[in-house]
């Protein structure tokens, strides 16, 4: 087991001026907090943070990152709090430990393979500092190294997760050694048979060929030294089981058919020596065509640089060679950590701009093609700032743009869920649908059976999918509302000309109307956006409209009038009266109502007239605007109605109806059955197919009025009903 003093010695080796007090303090704090907790292996828990810290010393991390490693499980697993860590270690370390805590909580969420890419992004979004990711990777590496002690089912799940998420993340951060080790450890649990087979064969091979590796190393070293290259290091090794397995799979080869199981690395002093070394090697041994790659002049996205070639070696076996400088090697091994980015006392004259541009490239590689933020401040990973990642209650990850709402979330899960969404719980609490979601939120959508999305949602949502679906659903609802009406109008218009209307007839002439959908046309007629006679003309271009426009039809009290015609009958205006059942008035006050009336249940105000009388207005009345700058004329009044009330009150309705015989009779008889008095009717033909009826009626109260409006709306000759205010 790693000991605290060994850890300190390791740090001091690469950073002699390291803050030892900080390391000791972090160690003591973590040890006290973890107390008697044990690992599954039976070791004291503190051994884990110590090992994680030790892994990070291999990457030469600074002492605050090492301290974070020691503290990384304290908030999640002990009584430690962010505030306490801030107080002891400062808020930078506090923030990093909290970042690790957040990522650890994400571990609890169940995952699916196809979500791996999203999850990697989520990690990057949550871990807004590279150091959090480095500590997390070291944490995972140690957990994988000790995975044997976990339950078998857990071993498999954790291994799959490591293979899908952490190993590629390490690779993209440029840490090849860590990636390989994570892959091999996972492989061992995911596919134990294949792992064991390959491992056994590799062991056989290395037993047989121990001398071979050494002799190739010697031969390469001698070749390069004799040509005057200095400080050359050569190292050969057998490849790892997982990378061999991968190659066997992708090329459909058996182990015996695998030709390049050995890899040799040549490390030289300077860049130009790489190409010279390559020349000498190719001169001595035959190269395998098409296996040469120059990653020095064309670095990989994560900054990796090297020359790759394959040669047919001394014993006619294929040998893979990597040739690179020491600096390139450090980048290949340690990736992001290879840079003195987080270390104080950056080397004088060090090319900072280059470090940052390398760093930026690495970030771009992490983002895999997604456009990264323009500016990166020091270690801040301002990545995916334009996205939020949320979860369904079952743990499915949903990626959304920034500022997304629960409505966007619902539509992202399924259009049907969006259409029927009526509410949302965010992290278990009911929240308004306009709430902006945050990273890691768990969102549960409350649905109803019949809801149509309100058109206003279109202004709330941020995703195109939600917007399109809302528009579609709104359009469908409007179409449904108006299609019955439109169909009736068309039927009637066609019948009057001795023709028969049908959807099929209409379908054949859609192009003449510049439309593509039969239902759209019918709804457009219902909404008075298209006249029925235009449709008739489209179907029968030669037909002459012989419609008789004005023909009194006394039997139903209704006349069909040309556009612009009007008629009205009106009772005289009511005189001012007293004893109106209102509170807030002197009983003797003379009261009038606004021309459109007011009924009990309306919110009302009084306006004092010049003669001392009071005019009562519903609060919605546009007529009130003229008094806005005369507040002293406004009187606060309320209805004073009880069950003994025997007075009716005036209200005005605007009813948009089909312009056809029988309509008025149906409206008036409907109103009569509701015990409502009609005081006046005025009507205008506003279009060939429609008429606007304005009615003043006397009702007991708002409830009766609302009932009247609903009954009228239910008539199939009625398009719309609105309360009107003067
Ligand atoms: Mn841990």
List keywords for this structure.
six-stranded mixed beta sheet; binds manganese (II) ion; Beta Polymerase, domain 2; elongated; Hypothetical protein af1432; 24 helices; 726 residues; alpha+beta; Ubiquitin-like (UB roll); 44% helix; five-stranded antiparallel beta sheet
Describe this structure in words.
The chain has 6 domains: 187 residues, Hypothetical protein af1432 (Orthogonal Bundle), CATH 1.10.3210; 143 residues, Beta Polymerase, domain 2 (2-Layer Sandwich), CATH 3.30.460.10; 101 residues, Beta-grasp domain (Ubiquitin-like (UB roll), Roll), CATH 3.10.20; 67 residues, no CATH class; 99 residues, no CATH class; 76 residues, ACT domain (Alpha-Beta Plaits). Helices cover 44% and strands 17% of the residues. It contains 24 helices and 24 strands. The strands form 7 sheets. Strands 1, 2, 3, 4, 5 and 6 form a 6-stranded mixed sheet that branches. It has a 5-stranded antiparallel sheet with strand order 14-22-23-21-24. A 4-stranded mixed sheet has the order 16-18-17-19, with no helix packed on it. The chain is elongated, with a radius of gyration of 41 Å. It starts with a helix and ends with a strand. 34% of the residues are buried. About 10% of the residues have low confidence. The protein binds manganese (II) ion. The site of manganese (II) ion has 4 residues, from loops.
């Amino acid at each position: 087991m790693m000991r605290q003093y060994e850890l300190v010695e390791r740090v001091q080796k690469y950073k002699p001026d390291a803050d030892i007090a900080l390391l000791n303090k972090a160690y003591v704090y973590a040890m006290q907090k973890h107390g008697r907790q044990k690992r599954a292996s039976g070791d004291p828990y503190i051994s884990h943070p110590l090992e994680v810290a030790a892994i990070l010393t291999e990457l030469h991390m600074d002492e605050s990152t090492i301290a974070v490693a020691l503290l990384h499980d304290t908030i999640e697993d002990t009584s430690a709090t962010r505030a306490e860590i801030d107080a002891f270690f400062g808020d930078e370390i506090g923030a990093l430990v909290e970042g690790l805590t957040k990522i650890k909580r994400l571990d609890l969420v169940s995952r699916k393979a196809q979500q791996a890419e999203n999850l990697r992004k989520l990690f990057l979004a949550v871990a807004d500092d590279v150091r959090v990711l480095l500590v997390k990777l070291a944490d995972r590496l140690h957990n994988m190294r000790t995975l044997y002690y976990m339950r078998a089912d857990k071993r498999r799940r954790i291994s799959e997760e490591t293979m899908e998420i952490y190993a590629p993340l390490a690779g993209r951060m440029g840490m090849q050694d860590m990636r390989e080790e994570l892959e091999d450890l996972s492989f061992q649990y995911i596919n134990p048979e294949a792992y064991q087979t390959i491992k056994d064969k590799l062991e056989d091979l290395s037993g047989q060929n121990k001398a071979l590796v050494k002799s190739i190393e010697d031969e390469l070293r001698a070749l390069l030294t004799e040509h005057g290259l200095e400080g050359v290091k050569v190292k050969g090794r057998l490849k790892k089981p997982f990378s061999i397995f991968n190659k066997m799979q992708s090329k459909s080869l058996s182990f015996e058919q695998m030709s390049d199981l050995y890899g040799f690395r040549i490390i030289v002093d300077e860049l130009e020596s790489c190409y010279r070394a390559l020349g000498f090697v190719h001169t001595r041994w035959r190269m395998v065509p098409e296996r040469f790659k120059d990653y020095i002049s064309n670095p990989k996205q994560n900054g990796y640089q090297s020359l790759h070639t394959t040669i047919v070696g001394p014993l006619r076996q294929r040998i893979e060679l990597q040739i690179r400088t020491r600096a390139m090697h450090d980048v290949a091994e340690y990736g992001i950590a290879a840079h003195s980015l987080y270390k104080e006392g950056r080397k004088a004259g060090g090319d900072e701009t280059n470090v940052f541009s390398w760093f930026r490239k690495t970030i771009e590689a992490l983002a895999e093609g997604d456009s990264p933020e323009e500016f990166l401040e020091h270690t801040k990973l301002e990545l995916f700032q334009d996205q939020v990642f949320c979860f369904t209650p079952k743990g499915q990850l949903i990626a959304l743009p920034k500022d997304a709402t629960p409505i966007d979330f619902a539509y992202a899960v399924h259009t049907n869920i969006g259409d029927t969404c009526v509410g949302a719980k965010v992290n278990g609490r009911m929240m308004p649908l306009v709430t902006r979601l945050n990273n890691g939120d768990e969102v549960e959508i409350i649905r109803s059976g019949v809801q149509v999305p309100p058109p206003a949602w279109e202004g709330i949502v941020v995703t195109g999918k939600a917007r399109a679906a809302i528009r579609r659903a709104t359009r469908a609802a409007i179409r449904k509302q108006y299609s019955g009406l439109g169909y009736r109008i068309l039927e009637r218009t066609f019948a009057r000309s001795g023709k028969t209307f049908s959807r099929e007839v209409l379908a054949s002439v859609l192009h003449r109307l510049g439309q593509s959908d039969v239902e759209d046309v019918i709804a457009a007629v219902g909404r008075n956006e298209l006249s029925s006679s235009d449709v008739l003309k489209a179907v029968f271009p030669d037909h002459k409209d012989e419609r008789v426009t004005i023909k009194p039809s006394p039997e139903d009290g209704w006349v069909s009038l040309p556009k612009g015609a009007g008629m009205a009958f009106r009772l005289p205006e009511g005189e001012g009266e007293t004893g109106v059942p209102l509170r807030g008035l002197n009983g003797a006050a003379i009261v009038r109502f606004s021309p459109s009336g007011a009924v009990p249940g309306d919110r009302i105000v009084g306006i004092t007239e010049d003669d001392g009388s009071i005019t009562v207005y519903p609060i919605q009345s546009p007529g009130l605007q003229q008094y806005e700058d005369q507040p002293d004329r406004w009187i606060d009044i309320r209805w004073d109605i009880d069950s003994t009330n025997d007075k009716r009150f005036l209200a005005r309705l605007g009813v948009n109806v089909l312009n056809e015989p029988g309509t008025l009779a149906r409206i008036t008889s409907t109103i009569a059955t509701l015990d409502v008095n009609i005081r006046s009717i005025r009507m205008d033909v506003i279009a060939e197919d429609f008429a606007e009826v304005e009615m003043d009626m006397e009702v007991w109260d708002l409830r009766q009025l609302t009932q009247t409006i609903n009954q009228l709306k239910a008539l199939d000759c009625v398009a719309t009903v609105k309360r009107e205010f003067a």
